[in-house]
Design brief:
about 600 residues; alpha/beta; seven-stranded parallel sheet; 24 strands; disordered C terminus
């Protein structure tokens, strides 16, 4: 009924969707390497027999992330290797960290960091980003003003896997018709926030506008280094430019969640109309649409900004369910007698993963208030006869301030090709929690597609974008994360329907070549560019009205109405308004609430 009423109101008055420890996502460069990996039968022995020393917790610092504790306990000459394997940023002898502090203790904590030879570089929502000498980590945790020290959550690009190129999404979204009618994004400002824009300078005046505004929020980097790290952001900017060729672009480089908050504040100060983020984060919030990202996004929307973000590419790399341990050995059972979830294509086989492959894995569970349910994450390698533990994450969950119900492992394989798998161990808990396991760059044999959204994608005040192929009949991409969001506190029920729209993947850009840019990363800037055209035609519209417009004209796919795979459907701009009929572009009417 809404679609009919809204379409009628338009007659009389008058979007498109790639982990550092977690971003929607660009998959790592070797994401497609698993397509060439040999497969083998899943071995027996999935019911683990852990060594006795693995069943009890070693003494740990309750105020220090386990990866940072390992770094602090490593001799100085070996720290660079440990930092690299754990995904820590170590430069000039100092490691990048985040301190969780009470609001009234920030000044004292900052002073303590400086006295310890460190430097605070930013803060947001009770978290301070800083650089510290590893030898000072334990010393600072002894202070009352420091609740916890953790490694920074980092953005994960939402990409699944050199001539001028135009994305196929322009035609698929009907943007060409809008361009012909004179709506080309003129006067609109779009901020693309990403982990890097390598090669953008060579595309100015060709596949990008003649001039763009750049700003770098990554600690220790200059604005010149916006042109670096990855071309992922460059491809996103190319798509926005194709969709809205006269829009003004802002290329903002980030790494961590605090960098993101600084970039958004800058975008607000520049009066941008649209923010586009083809990235997600992992384990920062419960996935229920609350937390620091929700606050950040709502503030942007209150300032008149439509924020478009990627759903993530985690549909085949996600498992969720209630912890189950019928044999009482402390290990979760994915099924009867199965305590190891192997990496595999999902057909009952396992990958033989060669040396040099990067594996990242994480868990979170529904204990974000008390944080006293204690679990451990294990990475295992099959040596030909049995599974052996090769990596673990054992952060403290003792109900103390700053602790989180999360674990994560970064690991690079070595030696001959082997089968790897994941296990979850109860260390101290009085209830069976609801778990989410995510291995963002590798497929799991046992997987649960629903509730596979990345953090940020679950926030109500952002327009979350899924991915469909750019070629008719526009099938859903198998990796595209689906909803719903988690329920309150990470519960398995009571979540909201996400994503909001679907847009185009497998498209052409100068940065990635013909049909080479995919993932919800590619989809997102299509929606952002489409939104710029709508803002162009209806310049005094509110963000919710533009979002409603895009939802109204979307082509319904999947279940009727808004669903957890396509949202309202595939991006398709309706017929453009007549540029000479000024009554049409005073505002975009809506019979829906301003979401």
């Amino acid at each position: 009924m809404f679609r009919k009423l809204f379409a009628l109101s338009l007659i009389v008055t008058l979007l498109i969707v790639g982990v550092a420890p977690s971003t929607a996502d660009e998959a790592p460069a070797d994401w497609q390497a698993d397509l060439a990996w040999a497969e083998a039968a899943i071995p027996s022995g999935l019911d683990l027999a852990l060594p006795e020393e693995s069943t009890t917790r070693a003494a740990t610092n309750p105020k220090l992330d386990s990866a940072l504790a390992e770094l602090a306990g490593t001799p100085g000459g070996e720290r660079s290797g440990v930092a690299a394997s754990d995904g820590l940023r170590l430069e000039n002898g100092r490691v990048q960290v985040q301190l969780v502090v009470d609001e009234g203790d920030e000044a004292a904590a900052r002073q303590a960091v400086e006295q310890a030879g460190g430097e605070v570089t930013g803060s947001f929502a009770g978290v301070m980003q800083a650089w510290l000498l590893p030898d000072q980590l334990t010393t600072l945790t002894a202070l009352d003003v420091v609740d916890y020290i953790q490694m920074p959550p980092t953005a994960v690009p939402a990409e699944d896997d050199a001539l001028a190129a135009m994305t196929e999404g322009v035609a698929a979204a009907n943007a060409v018709t809008w361009h012909t009618a004179g709506w080309r994004g003129q006067g609109r400002r779009v901020a693309i926030i990403d982990g890097g824009f390598q090669g953008y300078t060579g595309l100015l005046g060709v596949d990008l506008p003649q001039t763009v505004t750049v700003k770098n929020f990554v600690d220790g980097q200059t604005d010149a280094q916006v042109n670096g790290t990855t071309s992922h952001g460059t491809a996103c900017a190319e798509i926005v430019h194709d969709m809205a060729p006269m829009a003004q672009l802002y290329l903002l480089k980030i790494s961590t969640d605090i960098d993101l908050s600084e970039a958004v504040s800058y975008a607000i100060s520049q009066n941008v109309d649209i923010i586009s983020t083809s990235l997600t984060f992992i384990n920062v919030t419960p996935g229920d649409g609350t937390g620091r990202f929700a606050t950040l996004a709502q503030n942007a929307r209150n300032k008149g900004i439509l924020w478009v973000t990627a759903a993530g590419n985690y549909r085949e790399t996600h498992w969720s369910g209630t912890f189950k341990d019928t044999d009482g050995d402390g290990l979760h059972e994915y099924a009867s007698g199965v305590e190891v979830n192997v990496f595999g294509p999902g057909n009952g086989q396992a990958y033989l993963i060669p040396g040099g492959a990067s594996l990242s894995l994480s868990i979170r569970w529904d204990d974000w208030t008390a944080v006293n349910q204690d679990y451990r994450l294990l990475l295992l390698r099959h040596d030909g006869s049995a599974f052996q533990i090769v990596g673990s994450s054992d952060n403290p969950q003792k109900g103390m301030p700053g602790q989180r119900p999360t674990e994560r492992i970064s690991y690079v394989t070595s030696g001959s090709a082997a089968i790897y798998g994941v296990a979850v161990q109860r260390m101290g808990s009085n209830r069976d929690v609801y778990l989410h396991l995510l291995t963002p760059n590798r497929k799991l044999d046992r997987r649960i597609p629903s509730m596979s959204l990345g953090n940020l994608a679950d926030v109500p005040a952002v327009l979350t974008t899924a991915a469909v192929d750019a070629k008719s009949p526009f099938p859903r991409e198998a990796y595209s994360s689906e909803g719903p969001t988690n329920g309150p506190g990470g519960a398995p029920t009571g979540g909201a329907v996400k994503p909001d729209l679907a847009a185009f993947a497998n498209v052409s850009t100068r940065s990635y070549g013909t049909r080479g840019f995919n993932g919800t990363s590619a989809a997102t800037p299509h929606v952002a560019g489409a939104a710029a055209l709508v803002f162009n035609a209806y310049p005094v519209s509110l963000p919710g009205e533009v979002q409603d417009y895009l939802a109204t004209w979307a082509v319904d796919q999947g279940l009727a109405g808004k669903d957890t795979q396509f949202g309202y459907g595939r991006l398709l701009l309706g017929s453009p308004p007549d540029p000479w009929d000024y009554d049409y572009h005073s505002f975009v009417p809506s019979v829906m609430s301003n979401r």
